[in-house]
Amino acid sequence: MRHTVVTSFLCILLTSQAVLSTEETKEKEKLPKCEHVDPYENLEEWLALKTPAERKCNHTSVREELDENEIKKSEWGIKSFAFDALSSEKLGPLRNVGKQAHKLCEEEKYDASFSTSVVVIHHNEALSTILRMINGLIEFTPKSLLKEIVLYEDASEEEHVLTKHLEKFAKLKGLEDKLIIHRSEYRQGLIRAKVHASRLATGEVIVFMDSHCEVSERWLEPLLQPIKEDPKSIALPVVDLINPVSFDYSSSMVAKSGFDWGLTFKWIYLPWEYFETPENNVKPFNSPAMPGGLLAMKREFFIELGEYDMGMEIWGSENIELSLKAWLCGGRVVVAPCSRVGHVFRMRRPYTSKPGMDTALYNAVRVAKTWLGAYEKNFFAAKPRGLKIVFGDISESIKVRDRLKCKDMKWFIENVYPELEPKVHDEL
Fold it and tell me: Where does the signal sequence lie (predicted)?
């Protein structure tokens, strides 16, 4: 195992460094390595760290320069979280990634003023990433808008339990009234944990956010504006990239989200000519689906839609379910290009699933049986293994569909996502 972890570490590290620009790599190589302060052991000292730029040091893990303890920390992070926890800890408690959105976004005026609850689920998360995210939220969100941050720990394994660390952090920073810290003693899974956590929130708007994100300047205001214009909107930021080894932040391409008949998520990139019209760089645009990890919506609309399907297991397809419910039941999903949030795209998904179950397929079958109607045959043609799935009770979801008098999948294809069903030309 040790050999495998070390080999993987070296391969990924080399790949990561290859992605960096030559000039950036050379600049980093000139700097001494950053001193390592372990936040688990000395939280006060870690919270006092300045940024690597201010300390004039290199926070990335250059293996030849690491001592034995640093190598162990780096390997532990890659094994536990699928990212380099050493680089993250050396990066420190806060950084300003600056203005990542298009320059025209600076001229946009926003007047939406909803009280907002940020809801974060964490299971086996690194302390440094979640604290840097919280610090960023406090620093770069207007105080008048940020009501609270709900931190819901979904039964992390013993060595990764963060509740006491988070409570200590809240006390040190004077944030006891701003942070709602809760722990589930048994594993709910991401989907059910999101629902339970959302019920602790009191803000008018809920922002669901993964536990390894960093917000940029003026990230929230562009998300709230479409919700003011239409309260039944789900607003999405552009998801930027945080490297899992170097933790370098880079802007991603603006895209919308979709899925295929197997209900597998995919990015849909907009043609370059779309952005030649200046206003298209700043105005929200419709998206058939959403990634799931980052979204904003009215709390009452989330409740109206029946929240997430509580019959789903652990992870998978909840983003497609919520997208379909929004579109079919009177709402919409939009991308706000002036909102930018960075996300650590890990090397792999490090969590355990439910033994003996493909939860993503199980959940997708529930979505297909509830929402696809006559088109469910397309799903089972794409995922024939789904025919053998015993998918459980979907009566609550059916009740939501009937109560809200939701439209059918034919309407969705014709009005929202015509690309899902390509036109077939008759043979001559």
Answer: 1-21
Residue-wise pLDDT tens digits, 3-16: 333 334 334 443 44
Q: Using an 8 Å Cβ cutoff, are 237 and 294 in contact?
A: yes
Pairing label, strands 332-344, 213-215? antiparallel
Cα separation, 322 vs 287, in Å, equals 12
| Whether the Cβ atoms of residue 240 and residue 274 lie closer than 8 Å to each other | no
Kindly tell me the sign of the dihedral angle through the C-alpha atoms of 56, 60, 65, 71: positive
Domains of the chain: 43-91 (no CATH), 103-344 (3.90.550.10)
Q: Amino acid identity of 355? A: P
Average pLDDT of the segment spanning 281-308: 95
φ, ψ of residue 151 to 5 degrees: the values are -110, 105
At 324-361, the pLDDT tens digits run 999 999 999 999 999 999 999 888 766 666 666 688 89
Choose the weakest-confidence range: 37-41, 128-132, 201-205, 349-353: 349-353
Which pLDDT score, from 0 to 100, does residue 24 have?
Answer: 57
E strands, 131-254, are 146-154, 179-184, 205-209, 213-215, 233-242, 249-250
Helices and strands, number each (H, E), in the chain: 16, 12
134 three-state secondary structure: helix
Q: CA-CA distance, 29 to 64, in Å (whole number)?
A: 12
Residue the block writes with tokens 């933790």: 247
d(CA 183, CA 125): 13
Strands 294-298 and 205-209: antiparallel
Buried b (16+ CB within 10 A) or exposed e, 150-168: bbbbbebeeeeebeebbee
| Radius of gyration, alpha carbons of the chain | 22
Residue carrying structure tokens 């460094």: 17
DSSP 49-115: PPPHHHHT-B-S--GGG--HHHHHHHHHHHHHHSS-HHHHHHH-S-------S-GGGGG--------
- Contact residues for 177 (Cβ-Cβ < 8 A; gap 6+): none
Q: How far apart are CA 367 and CA 372, in angstroms?
A: 7
Triad 207, 208, 214: Cα angle to 5°: 90
User: What per-residue confidence (pLDDT) applies to 357?
Assistant: 65
Nearest alpha carbon to residue 346 among 293, 296, 267:
293
Please give the structure tokens belonging to residue 239: 């998801």
* CA–CA gap between residue 304 and residue 298 (Å, rounded): 10
